[in-house]
Design brief:
The chain has helices at residues 2-13, 72-83, 90-106, 115-144, 154-157, 162-180, 185-192, 195-207, 211-219, 222-231, 236-258, 262-267, 273-277, 281-302, 307-326, 332-359, 362-369; strands spanning 19-25, 39-42, 45-53, 56-63. The longest helix has 30 residues, at 115-144. A hairpin with a 2-residue loop joins strand 3 and strand 4 (56-63). By secondary structure, it is α+β, with helices and mostly antiparallel strands. It has 17 helices and four strands. Helix 4 runs antiparallel to helix 6 (162-180), helix 11 runs antiparallel to helix 16 and helix 14 (281-302) packs antiparallel against helix 15. The protein has a four-stranded antiparallel β-sheet with strand order 1-4-3-2.
């Protein structure tokens, strides 16, 4: 009995880097059957010794030397991918969708959006979102270590140094500049001006309860850039309502996102709309939804959109109101799931604008373009 208890303890708890111990049940007639063999079990494992204990066999495996050096490339780049949140594409998608809305809105009536522009803006969104995350973590590394959700980020656990982060940031901004330089001069100037907002956003959570508003101004800059990339100018009658809709949408989804950290943020004096609104968050989320939908309708009227556009606006409204209705503001996982679901709003609105523009006639489009800005 003592031997059996000892064997069970080894088989279930002992984990060694080279020697592995486990049980195997035998179909034996005798409870005292003993077995001793030497044979391969797995590709790189040999069975070297075994013995039975009351019809249970204690087996010791000795691993052969395996000449498989650690993949240094993966171990080197992994912290950088974590720094730019590469495994969480929702960030760059939320940055990308307003760009696609504007590109589709600026397209010639009866035609599909410019796929080259969609591709360039997609690359730019990935790079700029990564740069934004890097800047944010550089600002917040002392705060992140106090928040449960962020205390394992690369700069916090020191898998990367601040120098590494600076070099990586320079590389991301350099690639973003290469993408930007593919566009016209007007768009280059407008795009470069967004760096002020990208840099200031992390500071806002230290001085105002409305950092999500600054994030909205930053994340929806593409609503201006997309039109500029197509026309080398900005039609404010079209772009400003679209921009306003995007800002309200960002206030909506990032308040939901911030509800995950409300307790930690309050404890460490970090400001956010989630902390400010508290138990009244659903009222404010409903208000942001109404503001976003009103702006989208204004944009549609100003640009002479057809029925697919308004169908998309209706679907977006239903999605946002349903989020508010079913949201549990005290459940971090539910808040995270609702936040991620906002990706659906992005592609629904893009399809609506693209199909609406496709159904427009050139005459309608020309009449709209003749309207004074």
């Amino acid at each position: 009995m003592i031997i059996q208890m000892f064997a069970r303890g080894i088989g279930t708890k002992l984990k060694l880097p080279v020697i592995h111990v486990f049980y195997k049940t035998l179909s034996t007639k005798s409870r005292n059957t003993s077995l001793c063999v030497y044979q391969p079990i797995l590709a790189n494992t040999n069975l070297s010794r075994c013995c039975s204990v009351n019809s249970k066999v204690l087996i010791t495996e000795q691993s052969k030397p395996v000449n498989q050096p650690e993949n240094m490339v993966i171990s080197t780049i992994k912290p950088y991918l974590e720094l730019m949140r590469f495994s969480r594409p929702i960030g760059w998608l939320l940055l990308y969708w307003p760009c696609t809305w504007s590109i589709a809105l600026a397209s010639t009536a009866g035609e599909f959006p410019n796929f080259e522009m969609l591709g360039l803006f997609g690359l730019g969104a990935v790079m700029m979102r990564g740069a934004g995350c890097t800047i944010n973590d550089m600002w917040d590394k002392d705060i992140d270590k106090k928040v449960e959700r962020t205390n394992n980020r690369p700069l916090v656990i020191k898998s990367l140094s601040m120098f590494d982060a600076w070099v990586f940031l320079a590389g991301q901004l350099g690639l973003s500049l290469i993408v930007l330089l593919q566009l016209n001069l007007y768009t280059i100037v407008v795009g470069a001006s967004s760096l002020v907002l990208v840099t200031l956003y992390p500071l806002m959570k230290r001085i105002t309860y409305w950092p999500q508003f600054v994030l909205g101004l930053t994340f929806n800059w593409g609503a201006l850039l997309g039109w500029a990339a197509i026309h080398s100018s900005i039609d404010f009658a079209a772009c400003l309502p679209l921009y306003a809709a995007g800002v309200a949408w960002t206030l909506f989804y990032d308040t939901i996102y911030g509800l995950q950290d409300r307790k930690d943020d309050s404890k460490h004096n970090i400001y956010s709309t989630a902390v400010l609104f508290g138990s009244k968050s659903k009222f404010w989320l409903t208000s942001f939804t109404t503001m976003s939908l009103s702006s989208l309708i204004t944009c549609g009227v100003n640009t002479g959109q057809t029925w697919p556009y308004y169908l998309a606006v209706g679907a977006v409204g239903a999605h946002m109101f349903n989020q508010v209705r079913t949201l549990d503001i005290y459940n971090p996982q539910d808040c995270s799931d609702k936040f991620v679901s906002n990706n659906h709003i992005g592609w629904i609105m893009f399809l609506g604008i693209a199909l609406s523009t496709l159904l427009q006639t050139p005459i309608e489009s020309e009449n709209i373009n003749l309207m004074p800005n």
